[in-house]
UniProtKB/TrEMBL annotation:
Composition-biased stretches (Gly residues): 464-480
Renumbered residue ranges of the record's region Disordered: 442-480
Keywords for this protein: Membrane, Signal, Transmembrane, Transmembrane helix
Name this protein carries in UniProt: TPM domain-containing protein
Organism: Chryseosolibacter histidini
InterPro entries in alphabetical order: TPM_dom (IPR007621)
Record's signal peptide: 1-18
Length: 480
C-alpha cells in the first residue's frame, strides 16, 4: 500500500499527458508539410498517407486548405471553442478558405470548423450530413481511419464540384439571413428609386389625375396615381414578400429574377401606351409628330436596351427602323389630297433659304421637303439635332452659333484665380459676342504619405505553412 500514492500520481500524470491542448498539438504542416496531426496514433499510417495525398491534390486544384487533427482528449475544454482557437492559432486557409476536422476520441465527437471562404460551399447542414451519413457509422465500430477518410472524400467531392452539395442538402427552415437579403433588395435598391421618382412626378403634375397636370402633347403616356403606385410599388413589394415567405432554395436569387422579368413586363405596358399616341396621330396622318414622338423616346429605349438587353436590345433597333419608316411614309397633300413626294437632298435645296442650307451643312438641323405631284404645293419639316454643339444665333436665329475660342486674360496662380474670355460666333451671319469666366486658383499637389511601395500577396503554402486564414465559427459537430 505504500506505493499507492506513487501509482496514483503516475496515473494522473499519464492522464494529464493524454489531454491535448492547442499549444501541445503538433502542427505537422510546419514540421513535415503534412495536413494531418495524429499525436495519439488514432489514425493508422497508411490512412494518414492517403489523406495527405488527397488534401495536397485538393489544395492544388482549389487552394482550399484542410487540416485534420485526431486526439485522444481535450480535457474539459469545449470542442467548439477548442476548434476555433486551434483554427485561429494555425491560420488554416488561403484567403480564409480553410477547414479543420477535429476528432476527439474520449468524448466521441467529430467537429468540422469552416473558414469564412468555404462557409457557402460547406454550410452547417452539409457538414452535418457528411458526418452523419459517412463518418459516424465507421466511428461507432471503432474504424476511425475509415470514417475520417470517407468524410474527407465527400468534402473533396463538394469542394471540387459544388453541384455535389445538392445531394446532401435537406430542406431548411427559412433563416433570418434570407429575409435580411430580401429586405435589402427592397429598401436599398427599390424603394429609394421609386420614392424619388414618385415625388418628382407628383410635384410636376405628371399623373393623369394630378390636380394641376403638366401640359403634354402625349397625355396617353400618363398613368393615374393609384395605377402607378400599384405597378411600381405594390406589386414589387408583394413579390419580395412572397419570396421572403417561401421555402425554396436561393430565394434572393429568384426574387431578383422575378423582379427583372416583372419590370420587363411593365415596359410592355409602356409600349401599349406609346401605341395609343401613335394611333392618334395616324388618324390625322400627322407623320411628323409621330417621328418627333419616337425621337423623344429614343434615349429611353437605349437605356432599356442596356438594362434589359433581352428583349429590348432587339426592340431598340426596331424603334430606329420604325422612326425612319414614318419619316418617309407616303402622305397626301393638305391642299388637294394628291400624292406628295419627298425630294432628295439636291432637289430640296431649291426650296431652302441660305440660312437653312447652312444649318444642313453644319448638321444642326435636317430638313425634309415634300412636293405635291398634282398642285406642286410644298411642305417643309425640320428635325433638330439634339446633340449638336450649335445654338440659335441671337441676331439671325440660324442654328449656327457656337464657341469660337478661349483666351486667357489673366493666368491663375497659387495665390489667386485667373480670368478668361470666351468668344461665341455665328457661322452664318458672323455675329460675335464675348463673355468672361473665372479660372480656378492653382493647387499644390500633396505628396503621397508613403515614399516607397509595399506589396502583399497570397501564399500557396504548398510547402510548410498554413495560409493565415480565419473562421467565423461555421461548421457542425456530431457525437456517437
Amino acid at each position: 500500500m505504500k506505493y499507492l500514492p506513487l501509482l496514483l500520481l503516475l496515473f494522473a500524470a499519464v492522464q494529464l499527458t493524454a489531454q491535448s491542448t492547442v499549444t501541445s498539438i503538433p502542427n505537422q504542416k510546419l514540421i513535415n508539410g503534412s495536413y494531418v496531426s495524429n499525436p495519439d496514433h488514432i489514425l493508422d499510417e497508411s490512412t494518414v498517407a492517403q489523406i495527405d495525398t488527397l488534401l495536397k491534390s485538393l489544395e492544388k486544384k482549389t487552394s482550399v486548405q484542410v487540416a485534420v487533427v485526431a486526439v485522444e482528449s481535450i480535457g474539459e475544454a469545449d470542442v467548439f471553442e477548442f476548434a476555433q482557437e486551434l483554427f485561429t492559432t494555425w491560420g488554416i486557409g488561403n484567403n480564409d478558405n480553410g477547414l479543420l476536422l477535429l476528432l476527439v476520441k474520449d468524448i466521441h465527437t467529430i467537429r468540422f470548423h469552416t473558414g469564412y471562404g468555404v462557409e457557402a460551399m460547406l454550410p452547417d447542414v452539409v457538414c452535418k450530413r457528411i458526418q452523419r451519413d459517412h463518418m459516424l457509422p465507421e466511428f461507432r465500430n471503432g474504424n476511425y481511419s475509415a470514417g475520417m477518410l470517407a468524410g474527407l472524400i465527400q468534402v473533396e467531392k463538394i469542394l471540387t464540384d459544388p453541384a455535389s452539395a445538392g445531394e446532401l442538402k435537406a430542406p431548411e427552415v427559412k433563416e433570418l439571413s434570407d429575409w435580411a437579403a430580401l429586405i435589402t433588395v427592397l429598401v436599398v435598391f427599390l424603394l429609394p428609386v421609386l420614392l424619388v421618382t414618385y415625388i418628382i412626378k407628383a410635384s410636376k403634375g405628371r399623373f393623369r389625375d394630378s390636380k394641376r397636370p403638366d401640359e403634354t402633347p402625349y397625355p396617353e403616356m400618363r398613368m393615374k396615381r393609384w395605377s402607378w403606385l400599384l405597378e411600381f410599388v405594390g406589386i414589387p413589394i408583394l413579390i419580395v414578400t412572397l419570396f421572403g415567405l417561401s421555402t425554396i432554395e436561393n430565394p434572393t436569387g429568384w426574387c431578383f429574377v422575378s423582379l427583372y422579368l416583372y419590370f420587363i413586363g411593365t415596359r410592355f405596358h409602356r409600349l401599349r401606351r406609346m401605341k395609343k399616341v401613335i394611333n392618334r396621330f395616324l388618324k390625322i396622318q400627322d407623320y411628323y409628330e409621330i417621328v418627333e414622338f419616337l425621337r423623344k423616346q429614343q434615349w429611353y429605349w437605349f437605356f432599356m436596351a442596356v438594362l434589359f438587353p433581352i428583349p429590348f436590345a432587339f426592340y431598340f433597333f426596331y424603334h430606329l427602323a420604325r422612326k425612319r419608316i414614318y419619316r418617309n411614309h407616303p402622305r397626301k397633300c393638305k391642299a388637294c389630297q394628291g400624292k406628295m413626294n419627298k425630294l432628295n437632298d439636291l432637289a430640296e435645296d431649291e426650296y431652302l433659304s441660305e440660312s437653312m442650307k447652312m444649318e444642313e451643312t453644319l448638321r444642326s438641323v435636317d430638313y425634309d421637303v415634300w412636293r405635291c405631284e398634282a398642285c406642286q404645293s410644298v411642305e417643309m419639316w425640320f428635325y433638330l439635332n439634339r446633340h449638336s454643339k450649335y445654338d440659335p444665333c441671337p441676331k439671325c436665329k440660324t442654328i449656327a452659333y457656337c464657341s469660337a475660342g478661349l483666351r486667357t486674360i489673366r493666368s491663375a496662380t497659387y495665390s489667386s484665380s485667373g480670368q478668361g474670355e470666351e468668344t461665341h460666333a455665328c457661322k452664318f451671319c458672323g455675329y460675335q459676342s464675348k463673355s468672361t469666366y473665372t479660372i480656378p486658383q492653382l493647387e499644390r499637389s500633396t505628396p503621397s504619405s508613403s515614399s516607397g511601395s509595399s506589396f502583399g500577396g497570397s501564399s500557396s503554402s504548398s510547402g510548410g505553412s498554413w495560409g493565415g486564414g480565419r473562421s467565423g465559427g461555421g461548421g457542425a459537430s456530431s457525437s456517437w
